[in-house]
Each structure stands twice: as C-alpha cells, then as structure tokens.
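Comment thread on ticket #2218

A.B. wrote:
> Attaching the input chain for the structure job we discussed in standup.
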Amino acid sequence: MGHRGQLQEVLLNLIQNAIDAMRSITDRSRVIRVGTDHQDGKTVAISVEDSGPGIEPKKMTSVFDAFVTTKATGMGLGLALSQMIIERHGGQIVLVPSTNHGAHFRITLPIRNGSSPV
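C.D. wrote:
> Ran it. Output below, let me know if you need it in another format.
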C-alpha cells in the first residue's frame, strides 16, 4: 500500500533526472532501464538506471541532501524529497555503485496488506 501520487512523483523525478543526465551523451546509446523485483514476499524493489555520465564518487554521499544539484537550473530538492517520500512509506532509496556508465537508483518498499495508503 502506498500513496499513488507520491510514489509516482518519485519515479518521475528519477526518470527526468536520467533524461537530463543523458542529454550530453553523443558517443553511445542513451538507455533508461526501469525494473521491478518482488523480494522474499516482504518487499518490492524498483530500479531506475541510465547510461549517462554517472555520478562522481565524491558526490555519491550527498546526492540526497537538500539543495545539492549538478544542474544549472536545478534547485537540488528532487532527490531529497524522493528520499523523504520513500522513507515515509517505510522504504529506502539508495544510489547503487555502477560498474558501467550512468547512475543506478534502487528503491525498496515493504509490502503491506490493508486498505489505506500511507
């Protein structure tokens, strides 16, 4: 169970970030992979991965901080708000170290039974 609008906003933010990051890529294909995985009957995982330039290792620890951005016109709130939404749903969002080009975000959310969203 979850708030449809809030979870949709998180996914749209991650996908828009991926699109923005790949604008500068001219020497290879631009690819966004979105996947889901049902884990151990207790959680669901959602992955968003792009083939952009990736995130510098020294910036990986601060990507979820408010007002941290790499965009010229960005406010640096998208990932901070996304993290807040996911945590309020009892989940976790992490930046997964990528062995290829690009960024890879992974969201895990608990599976809950019930009739009322978060």
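A.B. wrote:
> Thanks. Noting for the ticket: The two ends are 7 Å apart (CA to CA).
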